[in-house]
Amino acid sequence: MAVTRRAVTDRRRSWIRGLRGRPVLPRPRLLVCFMGLVLTCDLLSVVLTWWITPARLAEIATFGALVLCAVICVEAMRRLGPPTRLARDLLGAWWLPAILLLPPLYSLLIPVPLFLLLQLRIRRRAVHRRIFEAASIALSGFVSSWVFHGLLAGDAARAVEGPVMVADGTLVAAPGLFYALSCCALFTLLKTAIVAIAVRLSSPETPWRRLLWDRETLVLDSVELCVGLTVAILAGLSVALLLIALPPVVLLQRSLLFQQLQTAARTDSKTGLLNAATWEQEAGVQLARALQARRSVAVLIIDIDHFKQVNDTYGHVFGDQVLLGVANTLTHHLRQSDVLGRFGGEEFVVLLPGADMAEACRVAERLRSRVGRMRLMAGENSVTITISIGVALLRVHGDDVIELVGSADLALYRAKGAGRNRVCLPFTGPWAIPGGTRGGRVASGREG
After folding, report:
1. Do 280 and 346 meet the contact criterion of CB atoms below 8 Å apart?
2. Alpha-carbon separation of residue 59 from 308, 362, 380 (angstroms)
3. Distance in angstroms (rounded) separating the CA atoms of residues 202 and 30
4. How far apart, in whole angstroms, are the C-alpha atoms of residue 145 and residue 187?
5. CB-based contacts of 345, cutoff 8 Å, min separation 6
6. Considering only CA atoms, which of 442, 391, 398 is closest in space to residue 418?
7. Number of Cα atoms under 13 Å in the Cβ half of residue 272
8. In the chain, what are the domain boundaries?
9. pLDDT tens-digit series, residues 76-126
10. Is-contact 391 299, C-beta < 8 A?
11. How confident is the model at residue 199 (pLDDT cuts 50, 70, 90)?
């Protein structure tokens, strides 16, 4: 009985420590202010437009039909089983028509039921993050809708011949198509910019190019824009035509989710990096190519110093934040061709194609330095993280993945034994350095 009570008490204490380490609101003040600014703009826009927007039955019916179609898509996502780290969806196919066909007020309202449903039916996330996602889409949609209807109002007195589309029950000539396309693109740009600013404030080391310029994101945004514009044209002709638009959108949504599920099977759920099995496959392919072309390749094994102590002190929730923070820092300071994965526990592994020993040591030292500059907040405490790195070179310390990882692992043990927070090489081979390197210099094995 005493053992059972002790175990329950230990679990309770661990749970309490985890709650203390869990951030209720994002810690950077600028990020909190920015999120508050976006939400305040939304609320003020709702108040200002609520009184000037007449309640028309046709517009309410269109709004309800778009929400119902979006709800069906969310349920289809739930039945397929979305990945833990769901990155993209096609719900924009339903709020883009709201931007074009309805007054700006409805653009502020449509994200509310959809994100509430996502929170309750798909996956629970931190409330402030879910609210900010809805607020950023609402604000982007409101601005885009206001611009679109303003452009239409300016052209209302002019009759232009050419292809037409339906918006707000009136026929709009050829410029309307251009306005619609431009305002949909404006919505995408605004949404991307708001999210990018928030991520940058949360993680200042994140390069702007990674936040704004991504080929896959650009393709998905283009598809979402085209699908949303098509649905808007059909809904503008007749709300009943949404019955025709719904099945293809659901099919596209399921295809996108299936692709993300495949990606999730290859990645680690906590960090988004390649898992150990997938990394080994990717590394094997790279090594085969390097052996055939007689190019150099290096392998790094990275271990977070005193990670168990971090978990015991601040809780496992904060430990997960440490893993994610280290993973993001490593990702931002590696080349796109480098293969980064989570090796297990608090260890990461990197394959550097084309890197000789000097280059591998420079990269390892840069990663060690960058991670050492991280500052993570656990409640009111600022926590500093350090890493130890073992380095191995193809043909010098091994000829395949297993040998290279084994040699790098031995070098990692040398780094930990020499005091941690340093880069070390294996004992074997002409490149062996006694004690490893720390801060860009040769470190004695007695140091630390």
Report:
1. no
2. 57, 62, 49
3. 9
4. 9
5. 307
6. 442
7. 13
8. 23-263, 276-442
9. 777 655 544 555 678 888 889 999 999 999 999 999 988 888 888 777 777
10. yes
11. confident
Q: In this structure, which amino acid lies at residue 226?
A: C
Instruction: Give residue-wise pLDDT tens across range 242-300.
Output: 999 999 888 888 877 776 666 666 778 788 888 888 898 888 889 989 888 889 999 99
C-beta of residue 420 within 8 angstroms of C-beta of residue 388: yes
Closest C-alpha to 424, from 327, 335, 301: 301
Instruction: Report, in angstroms and rounded to the nearest whole number, the Rg of the chain calculated over CA atoms.
Output: 27
Whether the full predicted model's pTM is greater than 0.90, yes or no, is no
User: To the nearest whole number, what is the mean pLDDT of the chain?
Assistant: 79
Helix 357-372 × helix 316-332 angle, to 10° = 140
Indicate left, alpha or beta for 76 from its phi (over 0: left) and psi (-120 to 50: alpha). Answer: alpha
CATH 3.30.70.270: does it fit domain 276-442?
Answer: yes
CB atoms within 10 A of CB 264: 19
| pLDDT above 70: percentage of residues in the chain | 78
Whether the CB-CB separation of 332 and 209 falls below 8 Å is answered with: no
What is the model's pLDDT at position 351?
Answer: 95
Torsion sign across C-alpha atoms 252, 254, 255, 259: positive
**In Å, how far from its chain's centre is CA 18?**
23
Quickly list DSSP for 310-366: HHHHH-HHHHHHHHHHHHHHHHHTS-TTSEEEEEETTEEEEEEET--HHHHHHHHHH
Q: How many CA atoms lie within 13 A of 13 on its CB side?
A: 9
Tell me which residue has tokens 């043909």.
395
* Four-point Cα dihedral 273, 276, 279, 280, nearest 10: 180
The beta strand positions in 278-435, using DSSP E, are 297-304, 339-344, 347-353, 376-378, 381-383, 387-393, 423-424
How many CB atoms are located within 10 Å of the residue 151 CB?
A: 18
- Residue 187: name the closest of 288, 104, 251, 301 by CA: 104
